[in-house]
Amino acid sequence: MSAQEFKELVGNTNDEDYKREPTAMDEYREQQKDDGKAWSEIALSEKAVIAAYEKSTLIRMPKGKYEGMVYYIPSGMVRKDENGLRLRLPEDFEVHLKGGSDEKTDLTAQQLMEELAGKRDEDYESIYRRPSEEARKKFETIEANLRSSLPDEMRNKSNWVVVRTRENNDTGRLEKFLIDVHTGKFAESDNPNTWTDFDTACEYAKEHGGVALAYALDGKDGIACIDLDKCIGEGGKRTPLAEEVLSKCGKTYIEHSLSGKGLHIFGKTQGADLRSFSKDGDMEYYQSGQFIAMTGDNIGGKELADFDTPEMKALLERKLERRTEWTNVGKGEAGLTQMDDRELLEKAFSAKNGDTVKRLYNGEDLRHNHSNSDMSLMNYLAFYSGGNVEQMTRIFATSGLYRPEKDASYYEHTAIKAAKDTPHYTPPKAPAQPPKSSGGNSKA
Length: 444
Fold this sequence. Notes:
Low-confidence stretches: 15-34, 438-444
Radius of gyration: 27 Å
């Protein structure tokens, strides 16, 4: 660059032009006051990165002593240049590795550098813990049930993914993770490239681990599912709603859910513009864009009955109601017409993490993946609304994250999952008031 070119480039700049937003590295240095400490740097394979978030990056360990374990690093410590990724750590940094079954190990920065030294892309590929023989046999039982019970129309389609589960200690729920067998990463309910055929899914589950399979409802084959959660109580007693549905759905494919406390009732429909959830939360109805975890624990028939009969249509319309268009979509707080919606956002914005909620609501893709940011905002809305799906979707539709090209069912399904997986806000209790003095005039 010539002196004249340099002058033209910087001649009209000022101090403001050279300011930058603080990074996670800046935050770490500020917190630790470690500017004078030694730092180490090492090349890092891009295959090692599982997910990159706003302030932290999730990384897997390579093959070797700690393979199968993962750790978080402040995102500012992972840098990319023309040669690839570089990991830079201060000498006193400690890494907390986590593995399956609550396995935990702490490494110093030097120990981590030694484990990563010389590792290439292939050292991060196909790292998994082979399922135990007991887990393999357990899945083989489920596979046999599915093969003997499933309607041929479902089993013969390439709409299958593998299910893994984990107990959530905060909610007491069994969390489900849907796995794409091609990559080992999360499958997407609206992306057929992440699905596979039934036989391939079964083989992957037995070899790499899986507790069940899930079927992707794609909206193209007319297959729908009524999901009744927690409808089976002590001694197998069903709720009145479950009994009503079973009496009207005909001889169709019905199975117990993974928890054993719910029912999945499958059938055929030409489609109805109904919401995916009931107001009282005791029924969900999926027609497309949704995975259903399958167990093969069949209590019905092997065919798919018609959901468009007068009895079933009346039942579904009574419970689910027809969709109404959301108003003021994407208009932000100005689009909120109900006082309780405004109050919910005010409460969320004023909380400790209120800035994050506000930025998500205003449309920032903080998770660097629009769907993940959608779920993040829905989780906050679920927390402050007490899991009110109708209110959650109504507020979300006014946010900057709302995408009009997405079907309404996408937002309903996201809200339903958030409502199930997120603990609900509990208002702080008012301090107990001391009893008023009677002034010595009370009667005995």
